[in-house]
Amino acid sequence: MIKKIYLKNYRAFEEISLDFSKINLFFGPNNSGKSSLLSSINLLSQTLQSRDSNVSILLNGNLEELGTFRDIVFKNEVKRKIKIGIGVKVEIGRPYRTKEIIEEGYFQAEFKYRPIRREIVLESTETQMPIGTARLRTKSTSPGSHKFSFFDAKGEDITNKITRVKRKLSHFIPIFGITGRFPHKQFQLISDIFEFNFSWSDMIEERLEYICPFREFPERTYLFSGESPDSVGIRGEKAIDMLVMDYLTKGKEKKNINENVSKWLNQCDISSKIEVVPLTDRHYEMRISNSRTGESENLADVGFGCSQILPILIAGFNLQKGQILIVEQPEIHLHPKAQAELGSFFYDLSKRNIQTFIETHSEHLLLRIQSHIATGDLNPEDVKVYYVFANKETDRKEVEEVKLNKNGKFLTEWPEGFFPERLAEVKKIAKASLRR
Questions:
Q1: SS3 state at 432
Q2: For the chain, how far is it from start to end, CA to CA, in angstroms?
Q3: What pTM value is reported for the model?
């Protein structure tokens, strides 16, 4: 999983480093910078997905539309260099080797803007896996060329000892090719670095699901494409295709997504079940059964919250161990009980070793996560709660961790008195009642 992110001169943040766990929650006022933190992970992912390996960083892709270098560099000062670092826990090991868990390896890339050619170039990279062992650094020497430097566990530069290896960059990832026989120690070093970079980049590229806050509107009928998507899409545009495919699948390959979604909706008193109803060989209707009256309605005729939560539920029940879910404002259009049940939904994902990053304003979701800690279902270390805000004194966007104890209570006060509304309104009611 992703264990750390480091950003310098990226969007709202001049410099910041955050540690992550199984469940990661981001709170804060609007326009505080929460989306900037999540977009850095998406930026790496969409770049790695690009077929053009010469693109060092892809600002506008399938996950994010970030504009230009001026738009993403801190204070819009194009002379600054942007650094993005990521600490990860991954498994490495080829068939001929015993698999090994790298508890925390680290990769960092630095980018700068070349105004003459109006392009973003990769200035340098550093690979260290795990921290305190061998390192690899690359440094730009001229347009399109990089110098590779290898260091052993003692920090000694052993670049001259690494021979018969072709070196190049794919996007921002150093890759290698063996051109002949060479000593075992060299092979081990190159192999470890290559496998580490391959493992973490594959995780970010292939095993990440991102759902933005603007999900698709419900439709009265759906045309099934016939394909089996591996992602619901950032707006949930492929969610129904995934649901229909699971409905058509029989035997061991079936994931029971429909049944699991229906169970969750029933727990929230939203619906007793969701049904896939075939109309033609390729046209389907989604019908929702009211949990109280039993009446069956088309998805387009029920509350908007149902269609907005469906992509998140379908994605969650489709994801496998070792995958990552990033979702913004999952609670949109949901009533308080359903928002609280989302807390249990993300807890269940963590039990299946699926890491989640959640940008939310829901106090109910947070309270449910706290209750899982209080009952011992979750360890406090399994949850990271961050408050993102604009510090008026420093004129900077900042992030502060709000830590929890084993009873699910916060060890520190929320910055800026966040979530004070309930107490403030209760005081107003009490004062008003005393006047009468």
A1: helix
A2: 57
A3: 0.91
